[in-house]
Write a structure and sequence with these properties.
2 copies of one chain form a homodimer.
Chain A: H1 2-8, E1 10-16, E2 23-29, E3 32-36, E4 38-41, H2 53-58, E5 64-66, H3 68-73, H4 77-82, H5 85-89, E6 96-98, H6 102-110, H7 112-118, E7 133-134, E8 139-142, E9 149-152, H8 154-164, E10 168-170, H9 181-205, E11 211-216, H10 222-232, E12 239-242, H11 250-260, E13 270-272, H12 278-286, E14 291-294, H13 296-302, E15 305-307, E16 316-318, H14 338-342, H15 345-353, H16 357-383, H17 387-395
Parallel strand pairs in A: 4-14, 5-6, 6-10, 10-11, 11-12, 12-13, 13-14
Antiparallel strand pairs in A: 1-2, 2-3, 7-8, 8-9, 15-16
Helix pairs in contact in A: 6-7, 8-9, 9-10, 12-16, 12-17, 13-16, 15-16, 16-17
Chain lengths: ~400, ~400
């Protein structure tokens, strides 16, 4: 079966930074190539919130991420399969990656974990009737929609992802909390390794052009990260993700990446799961990451925030701020996105004040485009041997 | 001043149906021509809800309507003027019509009136702290946003509309209720006539390329409609609207149009205010109406309803209906809009079930395009002398 996979996907490194593990690559998938490093907007429920496939494509989106947990519950993977798979269902003919459902199953229980990792406030998680049993076989969880009980096993996650039909799919993993400590993190990692093997075995039973990525765990512990990286890359995965607990703050997350990447072979694409702040993208690339995903651009838009090129403000502009009321300029001077080319800050401020949907739509588009343009700049700098200069231009001397 | 107006706007009838007052025309405005009969989507707060100017234009929108009441309160006409007027503020370079604010001021008081006229359920109106004093001078009303007190007079309405800078602007009028009876309707009509003259006088003080339309009142009473039509068209307005109470049901609305149009000169464009159901558009055109506006396409989308070509269902499809869950077809077979060309009913059903903004956006686009395409068909049928056949094709033998 391995041959089928390899035939569909291949990864070539086209440029390597001289001063860091940063690299540019080309990842071939059944739905076309990905120029890496790449940021993928998240389309949780088969839609990158408020945006159309046409405008995502027009603004340079190469790949979107769909969430297995949400799509399994609504509308259901079998329905999507009957409608020709996720690409056709959501009218997206470029590459798609689906996650395994593990992250949501666990983060909706622990609540704080996902937020702990990404430095976000807890969202709906804590309000939900959630209950989980983690067993060797898999996980029992309750639907966030109606409280009904469901079971995910490694095999079932892959079955669902096969039905969805994404180009890149992920292994089902357990998500321990940062607070679980060394012992539980080590136990959990070992189970995640056993699950990874089961995912791979199940995946290899059926001919597929989908590429399965393994996920390296081990929390914030160097020896566990090393062990996990070595085990996961000993299996014939097409790519590798850095997942699990990434620590309690950004510095710790960078340390986790630093302690993991040296144990990854250079020929596999590397995905840092769920990370997409401006500085995280630059720091991730610098540490050798090729793929990123994050809900942040569309979530920020729903929380009144546009991305701007201002590190002092943590790249954030509150569009409801009174200072924007009379501001005739674009969200970001020089931004080529349709929002900035067409509308003023004053108009967008008005839309948010008036609670008009178009506001969220325009800022979502800008935020997605902002990160895509950044990543295009990053890639070009790698191709032209000037990544360190670009890094410094954006982040200064850190 | 009249010369300035005439230079900016002109109306030419290019086809006249042989069997009815229906006609096709060409209305020249400072922002380009309108091919009539025309339907104008409503952009209450400087946005046709959820849609971009680019896609409105790509789908054939010729003109949008902005609401003076809402724009005056937020962000304010002076801010919009400072930002180059409503066209530039909302990035819409084709014609715009603004209403006078009268309709909202009164309908937010009476609550039921607007709904009475259009056969709709009351919306937010009844919940609002509203209070009005109608005096000869004008109207005192409370903001729907914060309860603050404001005054609209005929002069102030025109001043605000001058600041907004729409191509077509309307006289400030009082809106009596259908239940007010003959006597009050007659008194109110006379005041509206005096206000119309004041609007015109104020408008003519300042050179302007904006065209001012008068509004014919008189409720459901033939002699009042005749009197109002004759008075309004005796003043040098550039066009005429049919407004005021249009009765309690659609049949009565058609009667009101029937009793009014014969008293209107053929050389002026005629606007039936706030009407835009499929059958109303066809019935209106048949009775000699040139311009229509209505919030219905975007409001229906927010209420889970797509327009389809099925008179038996009153042209409505509930997109959350379980029958759509597995439906792989477009909202409307043969519809050229981007929604129908790209997405299935099953996908749109999923978006609504998931409360995804994109659902409202896609159905809003379809609904607007549906009415625009209908009106294009209507106009072509008039140009090709086959309007009666088209009318029958859509409405059957009524």
């Amino acid at each position: 079966m391995k041959e089928t996979l390899t035939a569909a996907m291949s990864f070539t490194i086209v440029a390597q930074d001289a001063t860091s593990p940063a690299r540019a690559g080309l990842l071939q998938t059944p739905h076309g190539p990905l120029a890496t490093p790449v940021f993928m907007p998240v389309g949780t429920r088969a839609t990158v919130k408020s945006l159309s496939p046409q405008e995502l494509k027009a603004h340079g989106t190469q790949i979107v991420l769909g969430n297995t947990y949400h799509l399994y519950l609504q509308p259901g993977h079998e329905l999507i399969q009957r409608h020709g798979g996720l690409h056709r269902f959501m009218a997206w003919d470029k590459p798609i990656l689906t996650d395994s459902g593990g992250f949501q199953v666990f983060s909706l229980v622990h609540g704080g974990i996902a937020n702990e990792i990404k430095g976000r406030r807890p969202l709906q998680a804590q309000r939900l009737p959630s209950m989980v049993k983690v067993k060797e076989e898999g996980v029992v969880f309750r639907s966030y929609l109606d409280g009904s009980f469901h079971t995910f096993t490694p095999e079932r996650s892959i079955l669902i992802q096969h039905a969805l039909g994404a180009d890149l799919i992920l292994c089902f993993d357990e998500l321990p909390s940062f607070h679980d400590g060394y012992e539980y993190t080590a136990q959990s990692m070992e189970r995640t390794h056993r699950w990874a093997k089961r995912c791979l075995d199940y995946h290899q039973q059926a001919p597929s052009s989908q590429a399965l990525f393994g996920i390296v765990h081990g929390g914030v512990f160097p020896n566990l990260r090393k062990e996990s990286a070595e085990y996961i890359t000993s299996l014939p995965f097409e790519g590798v993700c850095i997942g699990g607990s990434l620590g309690g703050e950004k510095a710790q997350m960078y340390e986790v990446v630093d302690m993991t990447v040296p144990h990854l072979p250079s020929h596999l694409p590397r995905h840092l799961l769920g990370v997409g702040d401006v500085d995280d993208l630059l720091e991730g690339v610098k540490r050798g990451i090729d793929l990123f995903d994050c809900v942040s651009p569309t979530r920020l838009a729903r929380h009144k925030t546009a991305l701007i090129r201002d590190p002092a403000r943590r790249w954030h502009l509150n569009v409801t701020n009174a200072a924007l009321r009379e501001d005739d300029g674009p969200l970001q001077e020089g931004c080529p996105c349709q929002t900035c080319q067409t509308f003023s800050r004053a108009y967008i401020h008005h839309l948010y004040r008036s609670k008009e949907i178009l506001g969220i739509r325009l800022v979502s588009l800008h935020n997605v485009a902002f990160l895509l343009n950044l990543m295009e700049k990053v890639r070009n700098s790698l191709l032209e041997n000037r990544f360190p200069a670009l890094y410094q231009e954006w982040l200064g001397s850190r």
